[in-house]
Specification:
With 101 residues, the chain is mostly beta strands. Helix content is 13%, strand content 50%. It contains 1 helix and 4 strands, in the order αββββ. It has one helix spanning 7-19; strands at 32-47, 51-64, 72-85, 90-95. A hairpin with a 4-residue loop joins β3 (72-85) and β4 (90-95).
Length: 101
């Protein structure tokens, strides 16, 4: 099993994306990304001595509807790159642009 497939590392990736508000990049206008129940699948793009670049597909729910509108939950997906240290530490992440993923 690859380092990025391990549950604790995936949790760190999702926590980082949530803390940096990158999940919100894939929500609808006014939607709120929910970290609970989110998961990701990553694959290696580039291996290095100290860090690896991964391409990750994240799947999560967003909550819509505020005020008088009825709240709804929708499934969302997004693809981004993650810079992961060989120790499993997430060092950076960025959105894919064009054909960069």
């Amino acid at each position: 099993m690859a380092l990025w497939d391990e549950a604790p590392v995936q949790e760190r990736i999702l926590d980082f994306l949530d803390a940096q508000q990158l999940l919100a990049s894939f929500t609808s206008m006014g939607g709120v990304a929910l970290r609970e129940g989110a998961h990701c699948q990553c694959q290696l793009v580039e291996a290095g001595k100290e860090e690896n670049i991964l391409s990750c597909l994240v799947d999560f729910e967003e909550e819509l509807g505020f005020g008088a509108a009825e709240r709804q939950r929708l499934r969302q997906q997004g693809e981004l790159h993650v810079l992961l240290g060989t120790n499993g530490e997430v060092r950076d992440a960025w959105l894919c642009r064009g054909n960069s993923c």
